[in-house]
Amino acid sequence: MINVIMAGFDIGTTNIKLALFDEKVRMLWNRSARTPLLKMNNGDMLPAKRLFEVVVEIFSSIPEELRKDIVSIGISSLGETVFPMGKDGPLFDGLIWYSRSTLKEFNEFMKKVSEDEVFKVTALRPSWIFSLFKMIWFYKNFPELAGKIVTWLDVADYITYMFTGSIGMDRCIASRSLFLDVTNGNWSKKILDLSGIPSEHLPPLIESGVERGFVKKDIAKELGLSRRVVVTTAGQDHIAAAFSSGAFKEKNILNSTGTTECIVWGGDKALLDVFLRRAISSFNGGIHVFPDEYYLLEGIPTGGFAVEWFLKKILKENFDMLEDLDLRETSVVFFPFLRGRFEQEKINGAFFDLKDEHDRIDLLMAILESLAFETKKMVDDLKKIGLKNNYEIVAVGGGARNSLLLQIKANVLKVPVKVLRVHNATSLGAALISGIASGIFDDWEDAFKKGFNISKVFYPQNVDYYPAKYERYMTLFEKVFKKE
Hints:
CATH superfamily of the domain at 5-236: ATPase, nucleotide binding domain
Distance between the termini: 63 Å
CATH topology of the domain at 5-236: Nucleotidyltransferase, domain 5
Helix content: 25-40%
Largest sheet: 7 strands, mixed
Strand content: 15-25%
């Protein structure tokens, strides 16, 4: 008889996912719904009130016999998006992370400070995507509401607030604000002064996995929950997944392919110190969900989205098409920058080396290869700061269901690519972290060991074809896209 259930929310760009696990970390139930987005010219808005309604709708769909045994809820979410909060709730919707509405604010701010100064404080390479510029945009465009602001909350902390009334910001998610001094874990006075944002509008900072309170009486009654259900935040989605995948203490590398494509590597303060000396020219750093750890993250805005774009918008096909394909060598090269790169927002995606002999399969193979090549670029940079050749890579996200893509990545990287048994590593990580907060697990290591389970491994094959193709990819990249 089940009597202890952990719930893990993954509030992502495309979907909101919820999964339930028992104390042996067996998944009992899962459900997803589309993330409600409002279409705008320069990027979408995330409607605060509708977002919580969808969260409640998903929770309400849990079978009653499972709902009554839930003891903890962990909430992980996308980063960068923030909501201005008044005394009665959200004052406005949040700009989604990829919204380019903030380009003007970003460019104006960067006239006041150098990229190097910002990097040394925040471990971030300045970009228009970060929360700081969304906040400045709001103050500039809605001055009549600015005086009503009590605080700002990120997505996970907003949902936590709605469940419990707790006000605070998860330090891991705050790492994506461009406000956080990563070396001491506090808000940066220097960045704050430059921004002109009132310090009293910033919330208290709280670690991931800390009990934030119990579900409020009215919410518990509506959802059929016990009044003793513990709620906690579980960091940014990629980092919650990094925990459940073992990407901490310089162990595994997480490769997440969802809407975006990214890799995450975790380590201690010594690794962060090397990184802050600009030993490599890529990656961003931040505070890990795992205690006293930091992470390095790099990615591109369009990972799995590039595959979805080509299948659905160009070919008018669905993902089932990938199941019938075999590997094919092709001279076509694709660059998956359909939404630019984080540090080069104005560049675009492109096909190269097209000939009349090529068909749609060649183009699709080139897209899949491009994601593997981008992953290799990231991994090669990590090797410059200490990553050993015997590293292991764990694939998660929607792309972990794409066997063809995973095989190509194994071939390109020349290392085995492992797949977690639970595909949604973020929901798993969030649930495990909620289990830590509620005392189900002894500690973080105990939670990880009980939750880490590999279902499949892809081993390198046909590795001779890819080095020359990767060299061609990098040659074109240097000529066409490399920053001056």
